[in-house]
């Protein structure tokens, strides 16, 4: 996030009930690949870090056509870290302070609200500081 990225974290239990929620979130993020390449990153994780292994998450994502997702199962990230707890949850984080700007359970996950959160991150000052410095030109040189 410090490099200007928008992180979209989709927490699921790898089950049938979570497919629609995960696919909606995944498809929204995929839509940013052409307009904001490399800026919006999708992570798919086990919602309570005890149900699935990484291989289970990989298999579930592949079976449900989410090939460009980074998947993991880790006790360091749990759905209960982002109250209210839910089996399906989407979190959008951005900015140098790693601000959570969207935190919705699957039942209230809408494409429009998710896009609004991501667009807000992309337009409110999370630009990549490395690219800004590289674009700086001082004349005459040496200054």
Describe the 3D structure.
29% of the residues lie in helices and 21% in strands. With 143 residues, it is α/β, with parallel strands linked by helices. It has a 5-stranded mixed β-sheet with strand order 3-2-1-4-5.
Quick take:
Helix content is 29%, strand content 21%. With 143 residues, it is an alpha/beta fold.
Return Rg in Å: 17 Å
Shape: globular
Report mean pLDDT, rounded to a whole number.
79
Structural class: alpha/beta
Strand content: 15-25%
Helix amount: 25-40%
Low-confidence stretches are: 126-138
Strand order of the largest sheet: 3-2-1-4-5
Order of helix and strand elements from N to C terminus: EHEHEEEHH
Largest sheet data: 5 strands, mixed
Number of helices: 4
Cα separation of the termini: 32 Å
Q: Would you count the extended β strands for me? A: 5
Helix and strand topology:
Elements: E1 6-12, H1 19-30, E2 40-46, H2 54-63, E3 70-72, E4 89-94, E5 99-105, H3 111-123, H4 129-135
Parallel strand pairs: 1-2, 2-3
Antiparallel strand pairs: 1-4, 4-5
Using brief descriptors, characterize the structure shown.
143 residues, five-stranded mixed β-sheet, single chain
């Amino acid at each position: 996030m410090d490099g200007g990225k928008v992180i979209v974290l989709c927490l699921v239990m790898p089950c049938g009930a979570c497919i629609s929620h995960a696919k909606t979130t995944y498809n929204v993020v995929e839509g940013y690949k052409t307009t904001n390449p490399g800026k919006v990153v999708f992570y798919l994780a086990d919602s309570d870090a005890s149900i699935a292994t990484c291989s289970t998450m990989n298999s579930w994502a592949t079976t449900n056509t989410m090939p460009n997702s980074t998947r993991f199962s880790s006790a360091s990230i749990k759905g209960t870290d982002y109250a209210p707890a839910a089996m399906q949850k989407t979190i959008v984080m951005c900015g140098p302070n790693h601000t959570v700007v969207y935190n919705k359970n699957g039942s209230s996950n809408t494409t429009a609200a998710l896009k609004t959160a991501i667009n807000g991150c992309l337009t409110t000052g999370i630009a990549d500081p490395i690219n800004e410095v590289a674009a700086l030109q001082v004349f005459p040189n040496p200054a």
